[in-house]
Amino acid sequence: MVKILIPTTRPEDWRKLLADPEKHWKRGYSAMATAMSWEAAKGLPPEIATIMGPNAELLLAIPEHKVPLPGGQRESQCDVFALIKVRGKTYALAVEAKVNETFGPTIEEWMQNPTTRRIERLTYICALLGVSYPPPPELRYQLFHRTASAVIEASRFQTDAAAMIVQSFSQDNKWFEDFEAFCQYLGGQAVLGKGFDCLLTDGRNLTLGWATGSKEFL
Q: At what angle do helices 141-156 and 176-185 cross, to 10 degrees?
């Protein structure tokens, strides 16, 4: 994990951090939209601040932040990881950005060839989120490991709480139903533009939300 970070001054500074800077850096796609959104905000993008609450303050943001998970060499790569302060409490926030991209394979598809490492990883994530293993096969694996990233970093940075927000620039909220199903599994009801809270096994609070970004960044 990289521990020395260089500040950005413009959206293009985010490009070199992508897995494939040529393929992923395009107008109308999530990587560029996210960079433009966060750089323009000079803090938390307003749609994310609305979910997190009044006077939510960005302490720092890290683009393309990688979080190690057990059961393999590939980390969970957050589009943005941020430390924020809300009403005197600190949060570790993992952001999953979307435009038209799906959330990837379902649990059933990801576990089609269940190696020992994959079983170890999914078992660990389920324990972290306080749910039973195995989770429902129709849920999206990406939502599990991105949420786990927030919880892991909350523990590492010793924040008061964790949060995972989908920042979607799709103006018709494409794939919201997948997020909704994930939230229902964790015991909450997803509502566009609002967050809901659940309690983690370590006693921390976890906030989940769907934020719709401005079309000006597409």
A: 60
Its pTM surpasses 0.90: yes
- For residue 87, tell me if it sits in a domain: yes
* pLDDT tens, position by position, 143-176: 999 999 999 999 999 999 999 999 999 999 999 9
- DSSP state letters, the chain: --------SSGGGGGGGSSSHHHH--TTSHHHHHHHHHHHHTSS-HHHHHHH-TT-EEEEEEEEEEE--SSSSPPEEEEEEEEEEETTEEEEEEEEEESS-----BHHHHTSS--HHHHHHHHHHHHHHT-PSSPPTTSBHHHHHHHHHHHHHHHHTT-SEEEEEEEE--TT-TTHHHHHHHHHHTT---BTTBEEEEE-TTS-EEEEEEEE--GGG-
Find the mean pLDDT for residues 77-98.
Answer: 97
**Angstrom distance (rounded) from CA 121 to CA 67:** 13
Could you list the residue range(s) of the whole structural domain that residue 135 is in? Answer: 20-46+54-94+105-217
Supply 188's token pair.
Answer: 């909450």
The type of residue at 161 is A
Domain count, the chain: 1
